[in-house]
Write a structure and sequence with these properties.
Number of strands: 13
Order of helices and strands: HHHEHEHEHEHEEHHHEEHEHEHEEHEH
Helix content: 25-40%
Distance between the termini: 53 Å
Largest sheet: 8 strands, mixed
CATH topology of the largest domain: Rossmann fold
Structural class: alpha/beta
CATH class of the largest domain: Alpha Beta
């Protein structure tokens, strides 16, 4: 049988595709000859990877440097309980191979950045963004603009999701819609804000659908349109945007350019690693054992406090409420501030340092609850 023909097994596996007039055997062969790189192996990537594999995409790439945590399983359906502690890229590759052995899966246990993006993304027909942070999105955008590769954006926040297609058929790119990132206070990731478990399943599946349409050449893509879905109200909005003709095209990768977009809207109370004091959980425990008695401030939400907290916590004030409750904090004692991962607490440390507290007296607990659980007390729940 000629290599460009579908085998009897492929005809059986993809029968429901083949009988679709817009797909047929030619469309299925186009999928088999296509390649898709997926950034991440988490909530958005899980359904995208599974449906791309089920659809018969010939080659699928995965980039992720994280490990499977039990808190991931609420939404990251490509992983199972037995995968906890494994590399996400390896776990995802195993799941895909079990679902469809005919797919060539290539995984990279690394984090995408300006230095490696062109090498990792060269040669792929479509890129899918399953990341959860703005630096990675600007990196994807810049690399795909240089390479001329279409990519599919997705984001999730609590009950609301967004999806769009960038850099497709000379259409607009991410920087045209988002010249700079919003403040992390306005757009926290799902680890900080929470997310309904089924939401990434819906958005990720739609990302896979957009990829398939592009690869086959059917239908209308979301290029130039941002779809917003709210599961709480079961409503959708379709926002139209175009190219920013005043924007200078991206011609080379630059970490400085990526971070400039993320720094442009930085709130005065947000962290910069160069001007806040950091203390690791291990060093905190050692110093306290030697008689150090800092004021321990928890800046998480009340619902997070109900899950777990650090012994000896003196006060909990949600980080956004600190400016209005500063009078409750001591000025004549060291203060150690903590949150879930160290992001919100770092913002509070800088805010206090800028508003009358001596910089050498205010510390951020590096890595927050998560690093404490990893290095000091594993009974502390990582949520």
């Amino acid at each position: 049988m000629a290599k460009d023909q579908l085998s009897p097994n492929e005809r059986a596996r993809y029968a429901r595709h083949i009988i679709l007039p817009d797909v047929g055997e030619d469309g299925q062969k186009a999928l088999r000859q296509s390649s898709v790189m997926v950034i991440g192996a988490g909530g958005l990537a899980s359904p995208a990877l599974l449906y791309l594999a089920a659809a018969g995409i010939g080659k699928i790439g995965i980039i992720d440097d994280d490990e499977v945590d039990i808190s991931n399983l609420q939404r990251q359906i490509i992983h199972s309980t037995s995968d906890v502690g494994s590399l996400k890229s390896d776990s995802a590759r195993r799941s895909i191979s079990e679902l469809n052995p005919g797919v060539d899966v290539v995984s990279f246990n690394t984090r995408l950045n300006a230095g490696n993006s062109l090498q990792l993304l060269t040669g792929w027909d479509v890129v899918i963004d399953g990341s959860d942070n703005f630096p990675t999105r600007y990196t994807i955008s810049d690399a795909c603009e240089i390479l001329g590769t279409p990519w599919i954006f997705g984001s999730i926040h609590r009950f609301q999701g967004q999806i769009s297609v960038f850099n497709y058929n000379n259409g607009p790119n991410y920087r045209d819609l988002f010249p700079s990132s919003p403040s992390p206070e306005l757009a926290p990731n799902c680890a900080e804000a929470g997310v309904l478990g089924v939401l990434p399943g819906i958005i990720g599946s739609m990302q896979a659908s957009e990829a398939i349409k592009i690869l086959i050449g059917i239908g209308k893509s979301l290029s130039g349109q941002l779809m917003v879905i709210d599961l709480k109200t079961m409503t959708t909005r379709l926002l139209t945007y175009g190219k920013d003709t005043t924007r200078k095209p991206i011609t080379e990768m630059s970490e400085e350019l990526v971070m400039a977009a993320c720094e442009a809207t930085r709130h005065p109370a947000e962290p910069t690693s160069s001007n806040t004091l950091q203390i690791s959980p291990i060093d905190f425990v050692k110093k306290r054992a030697q008689g150090w008695k800092p004021f321990l401030l928890d800046v998480r939400r009340a619902d997070e406090e109900s899950i777990t907290s650090l012994q000896g916590t003196d006060l909990r004030i949600m980080h956004l409420e600190v400016p209005s409750k500063m009078q409750e904090l001591p000025r004549d004692n060291d203060i150690v501030v903590y949150c879930r991962t160290g992001v919100r607490s770092d913002a509070v440390v800088r805010f206090l340092s800028d508003n009358g507290w001596r910089k050498e007296n205010v510390y951020n607990l590096l890595g927050g609850i998560h690093l404490w659980s990893d290095t000091v007390d594993s009974s502390i729940i990582k949520y």
